[in-house]
Amino acid sequence: MRLRRLLRPGLFGRLRAQMMLLLIGGLLTVDVLAYLGLRLIQADEVEQTLTHAAARVAALPAGLPPVDTRLLSALTFTDLHVALIGGDGEVLADSGPISATDRPSPDGLRTVVPSRPDEAVTVTAPGGTDYRMIMVPAPPGTLVTRRDGGAAKAVDRVAIGYPLTAHQRTGRRLVVLELSYALLVLGAWTVLSSSFIRAGLRPLREISRSAEAIADGSRTERIAAGADDPELRHLVEALNHAFDARRRDEDRMRDFVADASHELRTPLAAVRGWTDLYRQGALRSRPDVVTAIDTIWQEANRMEQLVEDMLTLARLDAEITAPAAAVPVASLLAETTATARLLHQDHTYALRPGPPGLTVQGDPAALRRALSNLLVNAGRHTPAGCTVTVSAEHAGTHVEIRVEDDGPGLSAAQREVAFDRFWRDDRSRGRPGGTGLGLPISRSIARAAGGDLRLAESSTGGLAAVLVLPPAGA
């Protein structure tokens, strides 16, 4: 388990690792740039020193008396290595380090190309000392004094070398210092970053504790966030919004179950009451038995319709719908209106199918049910002799199907709650057949198709139900 936690660190470990990687990258960049900058400065210093020394050698007059390397070193710079070379390439004399292994070898000096006296090259002595060397012509007639007292020999060119030992030592020291300081900075940053990250993640831990309390059933718990952290505040607002939505869903589900239980209790009580009367022998005559059977049958149909409507709403809430297709509006209105006329023959149904070729997108069976619910509601909840007008038209980017009646209608407050499940107007509670789920089902079907259902007052003072649907191909 511990190995798994190490291989899969949490947010704290990832943040610390990412910050550490950024810091390491920054330190490496700074260290490399500092080292390269030092090398450039040292190289420029070496080149300037060699150029200055070569200029001083070139400025010597011709025909000088015999010189030795000590005099020539004094004329250039005492810390430089000077080699006097004859015409045959022989090293006549040199100056610089006392140890022979620290002096450039004759073979190394031959790598300094005389034809390019202005270009310095690096020569390594047998002892490992590196020199930056430049070759310049000797003044005409320059002779070198022999140490054995023999005849002076002519000098053809002068090799001037700058020992790089001090510069290389400085570079190594810089690398060691950079690594040491980097380790110190990394160690200090590890401690400080852990404290900073823990402090930054403390609100998340508080959010987690509040979320766990809400998950355990607390309905009053809410997450508080500091106003100085906009990102965290947005997260907290989103979580609180989600928790509020969950609570509203739970409340709706609780109300739905309570209302469904209440709606089912009435027909069940009727069925049980009549069956108890029959078992007790209270129904002695045939008409009483027929009345009991008819009532039981009606209440069973009511329960069946109620259960079917609840299942339909459950499927719509779960977004379980059939594939959408193009539905001709004219045939949709004609079929549903014909059925409504048959069910409510004491009403007048006026049909205005709208422009020819008008089609909407949706599940044909579901759309027929949604419109049938509106037509049946208009016939059921209005007095006999009322007129129900069904029309369709283009309205911007959608198609509107309107079902209007000239009945008593609903007030604005009633229209606000008319889509609540199991809601019924007080005037319609005594009428048989209604479950209070027709409007919620119709609106859910419309929204599943990409539209909506809204209620308004009709031009005659009654109720207007407007079914908004997307056109086919939208």
UniProtKB/TrEMBL annotation:
EC numbers for this chain: 2.7.13.3
Domain (HAMP): residue spans on this chain: 198-251
Keyword set includes Disulfide bond: no
UniProtKB keywords: Kinase, Membrane, Phosphoprotein, Transferase, Transmembrane, Transmembrane helix, Two-component regulatory system
Protein name according to UniProt: histidine kinase
SMART domains reported for this sequence: HATPase_c (SM00387), HisKA (SM00388)
Residues that span the membrane, as ranges: 21-41
Molecular function terms, GO-annotated: phosphorelay sensor kinase activity
Compartment(s) of residence: Cell membrane
GO CC annotation, single: plasma membrane
Cell inner membrane listed as a keyword: no
Histidine kinase domain location: 259-473
InterPro entries hit by this protein: HAMP_dom, HATPase_C_sf, HATPase_dom, His_kinase_dom, HisK_dim/P_dom, HisK_dim/P_sf, Sig_transdc_His_kin-like_C, TCS_sensor_his_kinase
Catalytic activity entry: ATP + protein L-histidine = ADP + protein N-phospho-L-histidine
Classification lineage: Bacteria, Bacillati, Actinomycetota, Actinomycetes, Micromonosporales
